[in-house]
Amino acid sequence: MFGSPQSVSPIVTRLASLLAKSEVVWNPMIYVLMAESWYTALRGIVWCTAQTDSRPEQR
Fold first, then answer.
1. How far apart are CA 30 and CA 14, in angstroms?
2. Other Cβ atoms closer than 10 A to 40
3. 22 and 15 in contact (C-beta within 8 Å)?
4. What is the pTM of this model?
5. In angstroms, what is the C-alpha Rg of the chain?
6. Which residue of 3, 11, 35, 56 sits 20 to 30 Å from the alpha carbon of 45, by its own alpha carbon?
């Protein structure tokens, strides 16, 4: 159906395996950059400008 397994180079199979395993690293990074709330929180952590709620607590 897809061809002979012998026609695929060992380098290609290793590259495909590494690419699949690297998704564990790339997916969270992409999500943080795409989701604005996460991006804002990350930017606050990196630049030490995390927003705090300065309003007094109401009872």
1. 24
2. 13
3. no
4. 0.43
5. 22
6. 56
